[in-house]
Amino acid sequence: MLTQWLDWQRATVRAKCTGLDEASARRALVVTSPSLTIAGVVAHLTNVEHHWLVRSFLGEAAAPDPTPDWQPTDIALPDLLDAYDRQCEISRAVADAHELDALERSAPPGLPLVTLRWILGHLVHETARHLGHLDLLRELTDGERGY
Asked: What domain of life does the UniProt record list for this protein's source (predicted)?
């Protein structure tokens, strides 16, 4: 169930962005959060996937982020979505190759190691939360609503 919900949410990220032009994808609509744009959310979700499955779970701390987090000024939205899809494929492969009770290899100092199950549950939560942001940003951009 974890991976099915997560995959549904991952696919919905792309659906929320379908038909947007670059100006709309980069429009800051929340005065107090100018980095909260549709493009910024997609870039952030790419980095969230990378952080949890590559850096934390596999322990590859030296791996660079796939996109600039929150302010991807020089990357077109279709390229951001493609980078997100590629990172999700990597995440799927990592999850498929390990048991849900396997522990991550790296955690911040002072925090306990968590299982792959915990990480996938967290990704469901994080992706759903940011889909809520995409829902609002898209509706404010052009009135588009729904999945």
From this structure: Bacteria
Spatial CA neighbour of 28 closest among 116, 133, 144: 133
Tokens, residue 137:
């940003």
Cβ-based neighbours of 33, under 8 Å, separated by 6 or more: none
Interatomic CA distance for residues 36 and 33, integer angstroms = 5
CATH of the domain at 97: 1.20.120.450
DSSP 52: I
Q: Which residue intervals of 2-115 are DSSP H helices? A: 2-17, 22-25, 38-49, 77-96
Q: Which pTM does this prediction carry?
A: 0.93
**pLDDT per residue over 39-88, tens digit each?**
999 999 999 999 999 999 999 976 677 777 777 778 999 999 999 999 99
